[in-house]
Design goal:
The chain is of the alpha/beta class. Helix content is 36%, strand content 28%. The longest helix is centred in the last third of the chain and has 16 residues.
Length: 252
């Protein structure tokens, strides 16, 4: 399987009171197309920093990031903005829906920014909303009229409306209750089954179980990797025990 993203000797440092803090250190990573990669590690291990560097939301200090065969780490900020708009989708713990827009307008905003506004796209938005359980009776509601789980489902549709090559998620269930979190994870599983490439940061075992690959960071370096079959194709108890043993070995 070809890679959708890869890094070469990726480094990210920050200056804190004149002292350099090295968050990501000489990291080599390949993200394969249609893979569901989960990034785990202790707080401060560099999980979110790595996700931001992979997605073009932040530039590395040293090293390179490739999207396919194109190096994006050398892009200007304007070029990175175009790259994210055309190729990436984002789902965060904080959902960032526009409070002055209804559900449907929130979805279509992403399409309009990418200069896509066609009957086909409107139909796709309607189909996706229904698929995640947001029926037509809710499309004219505003974010403050929705539950947290409903808002996150709208956020996922907004993230995938332009059919991104890769979907990034940072703790997407962190602010949700157990039931709403499971609903959101089911959507991610369906997206993966349909061929969507996903990179997700989480500290939660239940969330990580949905991945096909878990990488573990410690002090900005990858110290372990665990592969799993597609979710639902194996025994859940064995899957949980296998991932649990791996995380125990990593000192999680």
């Amino acid at each position: 399987m070809a890679s959708v993203l890869r890094t070469e000797k990726l480094c990210k440092s920050f200056s804190n009171g004149g002292v350099q803090q090295h968050i990501i250190k000489n990291l080599d990573l390949e993200i394969l197309k249609q893979d569901f990669t989960v990034i785990m590690g202790a707080s401060g291990s560099g999980k979110s920093t790595l996700l931001y560097a992979l997605s073009g939301m932040d530039k590395p200090t040293l090293g390179k990031v490739y999207f396919g065969e194109t190096e994006i780490s050398s892009y200007t900020n304007d070029q990175l903005a175009v790259f994210r708009r055309n190729h990436c989708g984002f789902v965060f713990q904080s959902i960032y829906l526009l409070e002055n827009m209804d559900v449907f307008d929130n979805i279509m905003t992403g399409a309009l920014v990418a200069q896509k506004n066609s009957p086909e796209l409107v139909k796709r938005a309607e189909e996706l909303l229904c698929k995640v359980g947001i029926g037509a009776d809710m499309w004219k509601k505003y974010p403050n009229q929705l539950s947290g789980g409903e808002c996150q489902r709208v956020g996922i549709v907004r993230a995938v409306i332009n059919a991104p090559q890769i979907l990034f998620a940072d703790e997407p269930t962190g602010a949700l209750n157990s039931s709403a979190g499971t609903d959101v994870l089911d959507i991610f599983t369906e997206l993966h089954e349909s061929g969507q490439s996903i990179v997700m940061v989480t500290h939660d075992l239940k969330t990580a179980l949905r991945g096909s690959r878990v990488i573990f960071l410690r002090d900005g370096s990858i110290v372990g990797e665990h592969r799993m079959p597609a979710y639902g194709t194996d025994d859940l108890r064995a899957r949980r025990e296998g991932l649990g043993r791996f995380l125990d070995e990593m000192g999680w």
